[in-house]
Each structure stands twice: as structure tokens, then as C-alpha cells.
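Fig. S4 source data, part A: sequence.
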Amino acid sequence: MKRASWISYSIIIPVFNDSERLDSNAGLLAKYLRANPHVEVIVVDDGSSELQRAFLRGICDTHGFRLLSHSGNRGKWAAIRTGAMQSNNSHIVICDADCSSAPWITIRVYEECCRSSDVMVGDRNELQEGIPFYRLLYGWCFNKIVQVVIGGVFWKFSDTQCPAKVFPINHALVAYMEEQGFAGDVEWILRYSQSGYNIVSVDVPYMNDRNSKVHPFRDGARMFTALFRIRRRWL
């Protein structure tokens, strides 16, 4: 599928005290930007320490990334929302600092498998590398809970939490997103679906990072509680 000439992308990368992970991939990102002027990188510092923030500013200045900052730590999807609201491009691409799902691959898959009006939700289950069994089990369990608690569009997904996602920009819709932590994936998918967007699940390659900041028990409990907030708010 040929990319429409008007489509442009903002790769949004939330960062909290893990500038080193971004630094290891910054060169590849910068090379991709030079070859694709319709793409930008927006890094959102979600309340990192002063030392980390200074390091992050140097990375962004060196490679031409936009840097936005929160004064305190608010959560992954709070950072994504900040980046999305500041984007002037047609689509946003979600990416973790470690590029475990490489954004250049996410964009290529989107253009091959989706229409410009679609939302793409990446699925790691078939093309993942190095994910330990406990994380696979945790992901499977959380997905089943989402299907039971929220239902609807989620019955056709086996992985809601993969970082590889593409959303057409809708600032009016994004402005009302409230979930700030890791359960934000669920709220965004639900709200875009309720607003008439077609949600497409697509297999994407994923390389596990052993330094993942998601804690299965602590964050799992918070995400479980968040599902009921989302259900109460939007269903």
C-alpha cells in the first residue's frame, strides 16, 4: 500500500529516568528521520531526575528530537497524551524508550496493513523474542480480564499492551483521556473504537528488554483497578 502524501507521523516516546535506553537507539532513530522528513520524534520526559533530564536534553539536541517535560512523574499514558496534544502531524506512533517494537517497522506495517483512518494495535504473540514465561502469562491473564471487564472490541485482541500502536490524531478525543498509567492502552483503544475508528490488530516483531519497568504485581493491581474506572467512565 502506497503512503498517502498527506500522512505524517509523530513518534512519541515517554521517558522516566531511563535516558540510557533511549540513547542506545537515538542514532537509529535520527537516521530514520533524515530519510523520512514526514516523521518526527517527540520525547516526553515524565518527571525524571535533574541528571537524567540533562542527559535527555543532550540526546534530543544532538539528534533533532522534540523534548517536552512534566514537572513530576505522572505515568506513561499521561506522557503520551502530552505528546499527542502537541503533535501537528496526522498520526502518532507509540514507542518505548528501548525501541522494543522499532517505530520504523511499526510505520511500515501500518502502511502495508491499514488504511489511513485505522487505528493499529500491535500484537507480539507470534513474533516476540526473549519474553520470559511469567510475562507471557501475565499478559495473557490481563488480556482475558480486559475482555471480561470491558468486552466489546477487546474480544478480537490477544495483546492490548504491545507498545507498537498507531492512532490518527484526534485532539478533541485525546483531550478527554484520563488514564495516566499503563492501563491507558485500554482507554485509548476503547474511546477510538466508540468514536467510529476501525481498530486493526497486526502482528509486529518485539524484542524483550530485561529492564522493563512494568512490575507484574504492583502495576498489575493498579491496572486491574483502572479497568473498573474505565468501565464506569465510558460504558
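Fig. S4 source data, part B ends here. The CA atoms of residues 147 and 154 lie 5 Å apart.
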